[in-house]
Every structure is written in C-alpha cells, then in structure tokens.
Amino acid sequence: MANLNKVQLIGNITRDPEVKYTPKGSAVTDLGLAINRFYTTETGEKREEVTFVDVTLWGRQAEIAGEYCKKGRSIYVEGRLQLDSWEDKATGQKRNKLRVVGDSMQLLGPKPGGAAGSSGSDEEGGSSARYSRMESNAPSEKSSAARGAAPAAAAPQPEEEDDIPF
Question: Where are the beta strands (DSSP E) in the chain?
C-alpha cells in the first residue's frame, strides 16, 4: 500500500523565529504560521477562518528563517506532518500535537515594512523569493571547502521570473 505525507502551506509568520542549536551543532527553529481561509456562507455572509500551524525547520533553512523571517512576513513551506506525543507532568494525561517539519521554505513578497509598490528588490541582491530559493538549494562554498572538495565552477544560471512565488 502506498503512503504519502506531504504538506504545502502559504501563510504569515505569527512570531519572530528564534534559532537554537542542538548539542551536535544543528540549527533548529520553530515558526508559527497563520493561514487564512475566506468563504461565503449559504446566507451570503462573508467570513474568514484562520488556522494556526506550528512548523519546525532544521539546518540551513532554520538559519535563513532566523535571519530573514519576521512576524507578518508571508512564506511558503513544504514538508511533512509529525505527531508528537508526551505525558503531561502536571495532570498525568497523554498529550498530542501535530506539527509540520519543513523540508523547504521560500520567502514571499517584499520585506514587511518595505516601501509599497517596490519591485521586490532588497539589499541582499534580488527578490526575496529568489534569494531564498537560491540559498536553500545551492550548496555553499563554505560547506564544500569544509569537506575538502574544491568549489565547483559557477555555471551560468537561467534567469527566473520574479512574479512566480514558488
């Protein structure tokens, strides 16, 4: 029997992320995402429903989130569901929490507080979504040098369209 555990979310960050490191040096951060759903009831009344989701990011994704993600910023997260179970020390009850473990993340739109109507460029040298995509998918020269491998020659990259969020 086939199995699939894949989640794709676009939402707004609910709190500034705080990057922590495990004893072995792996970066980890937890994000809160607010995902809005707009709908119309049978009576024609327009409503909004908000779902809050906890997301955990590891490694370089966690470091990027800690550096560039702020409360209110829109992001795209792709990952998998994970169920955490524990026993509550105060009540002795078994507790469960469903969270998303992010495999990839892309920053969307301009930085919060940026000038309205800007082209999406920022100090990092391009649109936020492009920077995140390139940063998260490209192996860093530092990690290549740390492994003792020579950095690969930079191949020309085709230009990407800025208006595609992912």
Answer: 7-13, 20-21, 27-40, 46-58, 74-87, 94-107, 121-122, 126-127
- Structure-token match 């026993």, residue found: 87
Token reading at 136: 């998260």
Q: For 74-102, how does the pLDDT look when each residue is reduced to its tens digit (9 = 90+)?
A: 999 999 999 988 888 888 899 999 999 99
18's tokens:
């705080």
Three-state secondary structure along 129-140? Answer: HHHHHHHHHCCC
Strand 121-122 relative to strand 126-127: parallel, antiparallel, unpaired?
A: antiparallel
**Locate tokens 């906890």: which residue?**
54
Distances (CA, A) of 130 to 107, 122, 137: 8, 11, 11
Round to whole Å and give the CA distance between 127 and 135. Answer: 12
What CATH class is the domain 7-110? mainly beta
C-alpha angle with apex 54: 107 to 115, nearest 5 degrees? 30
Q: State residue 165's pLDDT score.
A: 59
Give the whole-angstrom CA distance, residue 125 versus residue 9: 26
**If you compute the radius of gyration of the chain from its CA atoms, what whole number of angstroms results?**
19
Handedness of CA 112, 114, 118, 123 (dihedral sign): negative
